[in-house]
Amino acid sequence: MISQSDSTRDLGKQWQDGKSLVKKGESIKAEGMDINAKGDVKVKEGDRLITEGKAMMQESEMIFKKRFPGQTLNTNP
Q1: Is this prediction's pTM over 0.90?
Q2: Cβ contact 73:65 at 8 Å
Q3: Least CB-packed of 38, 41, 44, 77 within 10 Å?
């Protein structure tokens, strides 16, 4: 009877430990998904800014070439 109660207690502890791991894992996963979602938003915003900036650069280069024909535009920073 004592060995059965020890075995049952061990199984109960194992189940509780497993339950704790599941809870911790779900929390970590949710946190990671939130980080990914925020990262996706930042990547999209970065892409939008890059596209907008490149368009502005192209427009200014085109205007420069029209206003100053024959001149070269140094595009190096």
Answers
A1: no
A2: yes
A3: 77
